[in-house]
Please model this.
Amino acid sequence: MMNNKVTTVIATAVLGFSSAALAEDVRLYNVASMSGAFANFGEQGEIGARLAVDTAGKIDGVSLELVTVDTESNAGKAARKVKSIIAEDGGLLFVGSTLSSTALAVGKEVNRAAGVYVTGSGADEITGSQCNQATFRWSTPTYGAVNASLQPLLDKHPDIKRIYTITPQYVFGEAMLENTRKVAAARGVEVVGNSYHSLKEKEFSGYLTQAMAAKPDLLVLLNFGSQSEATIKQAVNFGMKNRMKIVQVWSNGLDTMRTLGSSVSDGLYFGAQYWHEDTSPANQAFVKLSRDKLGLTPTYAMASYYQMSKLLIDSVKAVGTDSAKIRTHMEGLEYQGVAGHEVVRSDDHQVEKSFYLLEGKSKDEMVDAVDFADIVATNKYFVSPQESGCNLASL
Model:
Protein backbone atom coordinates (compact mmCIF):
# COMPACT_ATOMS: atom_id res chain seq x y z
CA MET A 1 0.00 0.00 0.00
CA MET A 2 1.11 3.56 -0.65
CA ASN A 3 -0.09 5.21 2.55
CA ASN A 4 -1.67 8.57 1.69
CA LYS A 5 0.38 9.19 -1.42
CA VAL A 6 -2.55 8.77 -3.82
CA THR A 7 -6.29 8.63 -3.66
CA THR A 8 -8.27 5.47 -4.32
CA VAL A 9 -8.61 4.02 -7.79
CA ILE A 10 -11.54 5.90 -9.28
CA ALA A 11 -12.16 4.16 -12.58
CA THR A 12 -11.56 0.87 -14.33
CA ALA A 13 -12.01 -0.05 -17.97
CA VAL A 14 -11.08 -3.03 -20.14
CA LEU A 15 -8.71 -2.24 -22.99
CA GLY A 16 -8.42 -3.75 -26.43
CA PHE A 17 -4.94 -3.84 -27.95
CA SER A 18 -4.58 -3.84 -31.72
CA SER A 19 -0.92 -4.80 -31.78
CA ALA A 20 0.32 -5.61 -28.29
CA ALA A 21 -1.81 -7.69 -25.93
CA LEU A 22 -0.77 -7.28 -22.30
CA ALA A 23 -0.53 -9.79 -19.51
CA GLU A 24 -1.22 -7.47 -16.60
CA ASP A 25 -3.36 -4.50 -15.63
CA VAL A 26 -2.31 -0.97 -16.48
CA ARG A 27 -2.37 2.02 -14.15
CA LEU A 28 -2.70 5.57 -15.42
CA TYR A 29 -1.79 8.19 -12.79
CA ASN A 30 -3.80 11.39 -12.93
CA VAL A 31 -1.76 14.23 -11.39
CA ALA A 32 -4.23 16.95 -10.40
CA SER A 33 -4.84 19.80 -7.95
CA MET A 34 -7.55 18.14 -5.87
CA SER A 35 -7.04 20.60 -3.00
CA GLY A 36 -5.72 24.10 -2.72
CA ALA A 37 -6.46 27.13 -4.86
CA PHE A 38 -7.08 25.18 -8.07
CA ALA A 39 -9.10 22.27 -6.68
CA ASN A 40 -12.13 23.01 -8.86
CA PHE A 41 -10.01 22.61 -11.99
CA GLY A 42 -8.53 19.37 -10.67
CA GLU A 43 -11.92 17.93 -9.80
CA GLN A 44 -13.27 18.63 -13.28
CA GLY A 45 -10.09 17.30 -14.84
CA GLU A 46 -10.56 14.06 -12.95
CA ILE A 47 -14.04 13.74 -14.50
CA GLY A 48 -12.53 14.07 -17.97
CA ALA A 49 -9.76 11.56 -17.29
CA ARG A 50 -12.30 9.11 -15.88
CA LEU A 51 -14.47 9.49 -18.99
CA ALA A 52 -11.48 8.58 -21.17
CA VAL A 53 -10.84 5.47 -19.07
CA ASP A 54 -14.51 4.46 -18.96
CA THR A 55 -14.76 4.57 -22.77
CA ALA A 56 -11.39 3.02 -23.55
CA GLY A 57 -12.73 -0.22 -25.02
CA LYS A 58 -13.63 -3.79 -24.04
CA ILE A 59 -11.41 -6.34 -25.77
CA ASP A 60 -8.75 -8.78 -24.58
CA GLY A 61 -9.60 -8.53 -20.87
CA VAL A 62 -6.87 -6.11 -19.83
CA SER A 63 -8.07 -3.60 -17.25
CA LEU A 64 -7.01 0.02 -16.99
CA GLU A 65 -7.06 1.71 -13.60
CA LEU A 66 -7.07 5.45 -13.10
CA VAL A 67 -5.38 6.60 -9.91
CA THR A 68 -5.61 10.26 -8.92
CA VAL A 69 -2.64 11.94 -7.23
CA ASP A 70 -3.45 15.16 -5.35
CA THR A 71 -0.68 17.67 -6.05
CA GLU A 72 -2.14 19.96 -3.35
CA SER A 73 -1.23 22.78 -5.80
CA ASN A 74 2.34 22.40 -4.56
CA ALA A 75 5.26 21.47 -6.83
CA GLY A 76 7.44 19.97 -4.09
CA LYS A 77 4.69 17.77 -2.68
CA ALA A 78 3.66 16.64 -6.17
CA ALA A 79 7.21 15.65 -7.09
CA ARG A 80 7.65 13.67 -3.87
CA LYS A 81 4.38 11.80 -4.41
CA VAL A 82 5.25 10.94 -7.99
CA LYS A 83 8.74 9.80 -6.97
CA SER A 84 7.16 7.53 -4.34
CA ILE A 85 4.71 6.08 -6.86
CA ILE A 86 7.53 5.26 -9.24
CA ALA A 87 9.63 3.67 -6.49
CA GLU A 88 6.87 1.75 -4.68
CA ASP A 89 4.37 0.94 -7.41
CA GLY A 90 6.46 1.05 -10.58
CA GLY A 91 4.15 3.66 -12.11
CA LEU A 92 5.41 5.11 -15.39
CA LEU A 93 2.30 6.56 -17.09
CA PHE A 94 1.20 10.02 -15.91
CA VAL A 95 -1.14 12.76 -17.10
CA GLY A 96 -2.21 16.15 -15.77
CA SER A 97 -1.09 18.99 -13.49
CA THR A 98 -2.37 22.55 -13.23
CA LEU A 99 0.52 24.73 -12.10
CA SER A 100 3.48 24.99 -14.48
CA SER A 101 5.91 24.72 -11.57
CA THR A 102 4.30 21.40 -10.66
CA ALA A 103 4.44 20.13 -14.23
CA LEU A 104 8.14 20.93 -14.46
CA ALA A 105 8.87 19.13 -11.18
CA VAL A 106 6.73 16.09 -12.04
CA GLY A 107 8.21 15.91 -15.52
CA LYS A 108 11.73 15.68 -14.12
CA GLU A 109 10.80 12.77 -11.86
CA VAL A 110 9.02 10.88 -14.64
CA ASN A 111 11.92 11.52 -17.00
CA ARG A 112 14.42 10.12 -14.48
CA ALA A 113 12.36 6.92 -14.47
CA ALA A 114 12.10 6.87 -18.29
CA GLY A 115 8.30 7.07 -18.10
CA VAL A 116 5.72 9.08 -20.07
CA TYR A 117 4.02 12.25 -18.86
CA VAL A 118 1.35 14.23 -20.76
CA THR A 119 0.64 17.64 -19.22
CA GLY A 120 -1.57 20.61 -19.96
CA SER A 121 0.39 23.28 -18.09
CA GLY A 122 1.42 26.41 -19.90
CA ALA A 123 4.94 27.68 -19.18
CA ASP A 124 7.02 27.78 -22.35
CA GLU A 125 9.93 26.03 -20.58
CA ILE A 126 8.01 22.72 -20.43
CA THR A 127 8.61 22.06 -24.12
CA GLY A 128 11.36 24.67 -24.31
CA SER A 129 14.51 25.14 -22.27
CA GLN A 130 13.49 22.48 -19.70
CA CYS A 131 12.07 19.92 -22.13
CA ASN A 132 12.80 16.23 -21.60
CA GLN A 133 12.22 12.88 -23.26
CA ALA A 134 9.33 11.88 -20.99
CA THR A 135 7.21 15.02 -21.13
CA PHE A 136 4.57 15.79 -23.75
CA ARG A 137 2.41 18.91 -23.60
CA TRP A 138 -1.17 19.00 -24.95
CA SER A 139 -2.02 22.64 -24.25
CA THR A 140 -0.87 25.61 -26.29
CA PRO A 141 1.96 27.21 -24.24
CA THR A 142 1.95 30.79 -23.05
CA TYR A 143 3.53 32.14 -26.25
CA GLY A 144 0.66 30.74 -28.31
CA ALA A 145 -2.05 31.66 -25.81
CA VAL A 146 -0.94 35.28 -25.60
CA ASN A 147 -0.55 35.69 -29.36
CA ALA A 148 -3.81 33.90 -30.19
CA SER A 149 -5.65 36.12 -27.69
CA LEU A 150 -4.04 39.51 -28.29
CA GLN A 151 -3.29 39.53 -32.01
CA PRO A 152 -6.92 39.13 -33.20
CA LEU A 153 -8.16 41.40 -30.41
CA LEU A 154 -5.79 44.18 -31.48
CA ASP A 155 -6.82 43.60 -35.10
CA LYS A 156 -10.47 44.02 -34.14
CA HIS A 157 -9.82 47.11 -32.01
CA PRO A 158 -6.97 49.09 -33.63
CA ASP A 159 -7.73 51.99 -31.28
CA ILE A 160 -6.13 50.05 -28.39
CA LYS A 161 -2.80 51.77 -27.72
CA ARG A 162 -2.33 51.34 -23.95
CA ILE A 163 -2.62 48.16 -21.91
CA TYR A 164 -2.31 47.28 -18.22
CA THR A 165 -1.52 43.77 -17.01
CA ILE A 166 -2.35 41.88 -13.81
CA THR A 167 -0.05 38.92 -13.27
CA PRO A 168 0.33 36.02 -10.82
CA GLN A 169 3.91 35.93 -9.57
CA TYR A 170 5.16 32.45 -10.49
CA VAL A 171 6.61 30.76 -13.55
CA PHE A 172 3.36 30.70 -15.57
CA GLY A 173 2.57 34.34 -14.87
CA GLU A 174 6.09 35.49 -15.70
CA ALA A 175 5.92 33.67 -19.04
CA MET A 176 2.52 35.19 -19.79
CA LEU A 177 3.79 38.68 -18.97
CA GLU A 178 6.96 38.30 -21.03
CA ASN A 179 4.99 37.23 -24.09
CA THR A 180 2.42 39.99 -23.59
CA ARG A 181 5.17 42.60 -23.54
CA LYS A 182 6.63 41.14 -26.73
CA VAL A 183 3.30 41.29 -28.56
CA ALA A 184 2.68 44.82 -27.34
CA ALA A 185 6.10 45.99 -28.49
CA ALA A 186 5.66 44.40 -31.91
CA ARG A 187 2.26 46.04 -32.32
CA GLY A 188 3.34 49.47 -31.10
CA VAL A 189 1.16 49.22 -27.98
CA GLU A 190 2.37 50.67 -24.68
CA VAL A 191 2.28 48.60 -21.49
CA VAL A 192 1.43 51.36 -19.03
CA GLY A 193 1.75 49.23 -15.92
CA ASN A 194 1.64 45.81 -14.29
CA SER A 195 0.48 44.52 -10.91
CA TYR A 196 1.85 41.28 -9.48
CA HIS A 197 -0.09 39.17 -6.98
CA SER A 198 0.53 35.94 -5.09
CA LEU A 199 -1.23 32.63 -5.65
CA LYS A 200 -3.05 33.13 -2.35
CA GLU A 201 -4.52 36.52 -3.25
CA LYS A 202 -8.31 36.90 -3.18
CA GLU A 203 -8.78 40.68 -3.08
CA PHE A 204 -7.80 42.55 -6.24
CA SER A 205 -9.33 45.99 -5.69
CA GLY A 206 -5.94 47.61 -5.03
CA TYR A 207 -4.51 46.30 -8.29
CA LEU A 208 -7.61 47.41 -10.19
CA THR A 209 -7.39 50.88 -8.68
CA GLN A 210 -3.82 51.10 -9.96
CA ALA A 211 -4.96 49.92 -13.38
CA MET A 212 -7.71 52.53 -13.61
CA ALA A 213 -5.28 55.26 -12.62
CA ALA A 214 -3.06 54.30 -15.58
CA LYS A 215 -6.02 54.80 -17.98
CA PRO A 216 -5.39 51.84 -20.32
CA ASP A 217 -7.50 50.99 -23.35
CA LEU A 218 -7.22 47.30 -22.50
CA LEU A 219 -6.94 45.44 -19.18
CA VAL A 220 -5.04 42.18 -19.72
CA LEU A 221 -5.58 39.54 -17.05
CA LEU A 222 -2.82 36.95 -16.95
CA ASN A 223 -4.06 35.03 -13.91
CA PHE A 224 -6.10 31.84 -13.92
CA GLY A 225 -9.04 30.04 -12.33
CA SER A 226 -10.80 31.47 -9.29
CA GLN A 227 -8.29 34.32 -9.10
CA SER A 228 -9.11 35.59 -12.57
CA GLU A 229 -12.83 35.19 -11.92
CA ALA A 230 -12.53 37.26 -8.75
CA THR A 231 -10.52 39.89 -10.64
CA ILE A 232 -13.16 40.11 -13.37
CA LYS A 233 -16.06 40.40 -10.94
CA GLN A 234 -14.34 43.16 -9.02
CA ALA A 235 -13.36 44.96 -12.24
CA VAL A 236 -16.96 44.93 -13.49
CA ASN A 237 -18.20 46.14 -10.11
CA PHE A 238 -15.76 49.05 -10.44
CA GLY A 239 -17.33 49.95 -13.79
CA MET A 240 -14.16 49.11 -15.71
CA LYS A 241 -16.06 47.30 -18.46
CA ASN A 242 -17.46 50.68 -19.52
CA ARG A 243 -14.03 52.36 -19.52
CA MET A 244 -11.84 49.83 -21.34
CA LYS A 245 -11.74 46.44 -23.04
CA ILE A 246 -10.98 43.48 -20.78
CA VAL A 247 -9.40 40.18 -21.81
CA GLN A 248 -8.57 37.14 -19.75
CA VAL A 249 -5.83 35.48 -21.76
CA TRP A 250 -6.05 31.94 -20.31
CA SER A 251 -9.58 31.25 -19.14
CA ASN A 252 -11.44 28.16 -18.01
CA GLY A 253 -13.85 28.78 -20.87
CA LEU A 254 -17.33 27.54 -20.06
CA ASP A 255 -16.59 27.10 -16.36
CA THR A 256 -15.40 30.70 -16.09
CA MET A 257 -18.47 32.07 -17.83
CA ARG A 258 -20.86 30.01 -15.77
CA THR A 259 -19.22 31.35 -12.63
CA LEU A 260 -19.39 34.94 -13.87
CA GLY A 261 -22.82 34.78 -15.49
CA SER A 262 -23.71 36.40 -18.81
CA SER A 263 -24.33 39.81 -17.23
CA VAL A 264 -20.64 39.95 -16.29
CA SER A 265 -19.05 38.09 -19.22
CA ASP A 266 -21.05 39.95 -21.89
CA GLY A 267 -18.64 42.02 -23.97
CA LEU A 268 -15.49 40.66 -22.31
CA TYR A 269 -12.88 38.65 -24.19
CA PHE A 270 -11.55 35.26 -23.14
CA GLY A 271 -8.65 33.23 -24.46
CA ALA A 272 -9.45 29.52 -24.28
CA GLN A 273 -7.65 26.24 -24.87
CA TYR A 274 -11.00 24.61 -25.55
CA TRP A 275 -14.55 25.61 -26.47
CA HIS A 276 -17.39 23.11 -26.64
CA GLU A 277 -18.92 24.75 -29.73
CA ASP A 278 -15.94 23.92 -31.96
CA THR A 279 -17.54 22.19 -34.95
CA SER A 280 -14.78 19.64 -35.61
CA PRO A 281 -16.23 16.10 -35.76
CA ALA A 282 -14.03 14.71 -32.96
CA ASN A 283 -15.09 17.49 -30.61
CA GLN A 284 -18.76 17.15 -31.41
CA ALA A 285 -18.47 13.42 -30.74
CA PHE A 286 -16.78 14.20 -27.41
CA VAL A 287 -19.48 16.72 -26.45
CA LYS A 288 -22.16 14.13 -27.25
CA LEU A 289 -20.30 11.47 -25.25
CA SER A 290 -20.02 13.78 -22.23
CA ARG A 291 -23.68 14.77 -22.39
CA ASP A 292 -24.88 11.20 -22.93
CA LYS A 293 -22.66 9.58 -20.28
CA LEU A 294 -22.46 12.35 -17.68
CA GLY A 295 -25.24 14.78 -18.49
CA LEU A 296 -22.57 17.50 -18.71
CA THR A 297 -21.42 19.89 -21.39
CA PRO A 298 -17.62 19.56 -21.15
CA THR A 299 -15.50 22.32 -19.66
CA TYR A 300 -11.88 23.07 -20.54
CA ALA A 301 -10.60 21.02 -17.60
CA MET A 302 -12.73 18.04 -18.58
CA ALA A 303 -11.71 18.28 -22.23
CA SER A 304 -7.98 18.68 -21.58
CA TYR A 305 -7.74 15.76 -19.16
CA TYR A 306 -9.92 13.62 -21.44
CA GLN A 307 -7.71 14.34 -24.46
CA MET A 308 -4.43 13.93 -22.56
CA SER A 309 -5.62 10.62 -21.12
CA LYS A 310 -6.99 9.43 -24.45
CA LEU A 311 -3.71 10.24 -26.18
CA LEU A 312 -1.83 8.08 -23.71
CA ILE A 313 -4.46 5.31 -23.62
CA ASP A 314 -4.60 5.07 -27.42
CA SER A 315 -0.81 4.84 -27.50
CA VAL A 316 -0.82 2.02 -24.95
CA LYS A 317 -3.47 0.22 -27.00
CA ALA A 318 -1.31 0.59 -30.10
CA VAL A 319 2.12 -0.46 -28.78
CA GLY A 320 1.72 -1.75 -25.22
CA THR A 321 3.12 -0.36 -21.98
CA ASP A 322 6.80 -0.06 -22.82
CA SER A 323 7.39 3.64 -22.26
CA ALA A 324 10.10 3.93 -24.92
CA LYS A 325 7.73 2.49 -27.52
CA ILE A 326 4.95 4.82 -26.35
CA ARG A 327 7.19 7.87 -26.72
CA THR A 328 8.27 6.79 -30.20
CA HIS A 329 4.66 6.15 -31.19
CA MET A 330 3.52 9.58 -29.98
CA GLU A 331 6.32 11.51 -31.67
CA GLY A 332 4.93 12.92 -34.91
CA LEU A 333 1.48 11.49 -34.26
CA GLU A 334 -1.43 13.22 -36.03
CA TYR A 335 -5.01 12.68 -34.88
CA GLN A 336 -8.42 14.30 -34.60
CA GLY A 337 -8.90 15.65 -31.10
CA VAL A 338 -11.19 17.91 -29.11
CA ALA A 339 -9.52 20.99 -30.67
CA GLY A 340 -9.69 19.62 -34.22
CA HIS A 341 -6.60 18.41 -36.06
CA GLU A 342 -3.77 17.94 -33.57
CA VAL A 343 -0.13 17.03 -34.16
CA VAL A 344 2.50 15.90 -31.64
CA ARG A 345 5.80 17.45 -32.68
CA SER A 346 8.64 14.95 -32.54
CA ASP A 347 11.33 17.58 -31.88
CA ASP A 348 9.97 18.90 -28.57
CA HIS A 349 6.81 16.86 -27.74
CA GLN A 350 4.56 19.92 -28.10
CA VAL A 351 1.07 19.27 -29.46
CA GLU A 352 0.09 21.78 -32.11
CA LYS A 353 -3.61 22.53 -31.59
CA SER A 354 -6.06 25.39 -31.92
CA PHE A 355 -6.46 28.18 -29.37
CA TYR A 356 -9.63 30.28 -29.25
CA LEU A 357 -10.48 33.92 -28.64
CA LEU A 358 -14.06 34.21 -27.36
CA GLU A 359 -16.33 37.21 -26.85
CA GLY A 360 -18.99 36.98 -24.17
CA LYS A 361 -22.64 37.26 -25.21
CA SER A 362 -25.59 38.93 -23.53
CA LYS A 363 -28.30 36.70 -22.11
CA ASP A 364 -30.66 37.70 -24.94
CA GLU A 365 -28.15 36.46 -27.53
CA MET A 366 -27.68 33.02 -25.97
CA VAL A 367 -29.44 30.22 -27.86
CA ASP A 368 -29.08 27.77 -24.95
CA ALA A 369 -27.83 27.66 -21.37
CA VAL A 370 -24.18 27.13 -22.38
CA ASP A 371 -23.99 29.50 -25.36
CA PHE A 372 -22.05 32.15 -23.43
CA ALA A 373 -19.71 33.31 -26.18
CA ASP A 374 -18.93 33.57 -29.87
CA ILE A 375 -15.63 32.41 -31.32
CA VAL A 376 -13.89 35.56 -32.56
CA ALA A 377 -10.80 33.77 -33.86
CA THR A 378 -9.15 30.36 -33.90
CA ASN A 379 -5.38 30.35 -34.33
CA LYS A 380 -2.22 28.32 -33.87
CA TYR A 381 0.89 30.19 -32.73
CA PHE A 382 3.98 28.13 -31.90
CA VAL A 383 7.69 28.88 -31.87
CA SER A 384 9.94 26.29 -33.48
CA PRO A 385 11.82 23.84 -31.24
CA GLN A 386 15.01 25.65 -32.22
CA GLU A 387 13.58 28.97 -31.07
CA SER A 388 12.19 27.50 -27.84
CA GLY A 389 15.55 26.15 -26.71
CA CYS A 390 14.48 22.50 -26.69
CA ASN A 391 16.97 19.95 -28.01
CA LEU A 392 15.67 16.46 -27.26
CA ALA A 393 18.30 14.89 -29.48
CA SER A 394 21.04 16.02 -27.09
CA LEU A 395 19.35 14.67 -23.95
